[in-house]
Amino acid sequence: MLTGRRDGTTHRAVELLASLPHQLRLIGGLAVLCRVGVPHRSTVDLDAVTRDLAGIHDDIASLAVTAPGGGQYTFAGNFDLDVIDVSPEPSAALIAELTAHDEPLGDLDLNVIAHTWAFETATSLDLVAVEDGTGVVLARADGRLVASSTGLVTMKATTVPLRSSSKPEKRASDFYDLGRLLVVGDVDRSGIAAIPEELREPVMARIRHWFVDPAGRDRTYREVRRFDEPRLDLDEVADAVESLVPPAA
Predict the structure, then answer these.
(1) What is the pLDDT of residue 249?
(2) Contact indicator for 53, 85 with CB cutoff of 8 Å
(3) Is this structure's pTM higher than 0.70?
(4) Which residues, other chains included, contact 172 with Cβ-Cβ below 8 Å and sequence gap of 6+?
């Protein structure tokens, strides 16, 4: 249950989601909001992953005002949807293909695997937008597939290194979302253990560096302090990380 203003972003996002093909798996800000609850940083627009975007492109485009290509769509009210088309192969087969030549997986490889795995592990939620203050139901999208908290963590942890230095606010919001997911998103050891090993090790090493190691933690603090509602307690995040993985050797 998500609260917001009538005709506000949350209302419009849930209303739009209800009209979109069920092959889409929700990721991005709205998915984080679903997994951590409120309050959380405000989110705009929609982000999703799917397999075989070409097969549902016409259905999405028929609802949009513009569809310039590349998985980008704009709807009435200048509301955007970005769709990432994941690998047609299962994540296990994708990993086998990318590691076949005994070369280390690069940042882009890890990001591709993370999005594919998050697509495969999304779970169904009933999303309801209610009016703040009155509780009146504004929109609902039942049975929508949403990336799990662990799936969101893997995607964000592999996206940060690919962020352009010209957009520090995107990197900062990824750190903020990661911290909130780790503290209140029900990420546990069993969820972490389910991540493919080739993806799990670099993801957890990065999270430990960003939230536990002194140098990385200091930089993270400087980046996320712009988000003050709710304030991200890095001690809580570090404790959550420590509970998920043993200390580095």
Answers:
(1) 44
(2) yes
(3) yes
(4) 223, 224, 226, 227
The phi, psi pair for 43, rounded to 5°, reads -125, 150
DSSP state of 101: T
Q: Beta strand 46-50 with 79-85: parallel, antiparallel or unpaired?
A: parallel
Q: Where are the domains of the chain?
A: 2-244
- Of 95-104, 150-159, 161-170, 191-200, least confident by mean pLDDT is 161-170
Strands (E), 6-102: 25-27, 46-50, 66-69, 72-75, 79-85
Instruction: Identify whether the C-beta of residue 186 lies closer than 8 Å to the C-beta of residue 149.
Output: yes
Burial letters for 137-156: b for 16+ Cβ neighbours within 10 Å, e otherwise?
Answer: ebbbbeebbbbbbbbbbbbb
What Cα–Cα distance (Å) separates residue 50 from each residue in 47, 193, 210, 221, 247?
10, 24, 29, 34, 36
Confidence of residue 39 (pLDDT cuts 50, 70, 90): low
DSSP, collapsed to helix, strand or coil, labels residue 17 as helix
Tokens of 188: 């546990």
Region class of 69: left (phi > 0), else alpha (psi between -120 and 50), else beta: left
Neighbours of 195 (CB within 10 A): 22
* CA–CA separation, 68 and 58 (whole Å): 12
pLDDT value of position 89:
95
Model confidence over 132-186: pLDDT tens digits?
Answer: 899 999 999 999 999 999 999 999 999 999 987 667 788 999 999 999 999 999 9
Higher pLDDT, 2 or 164: 2
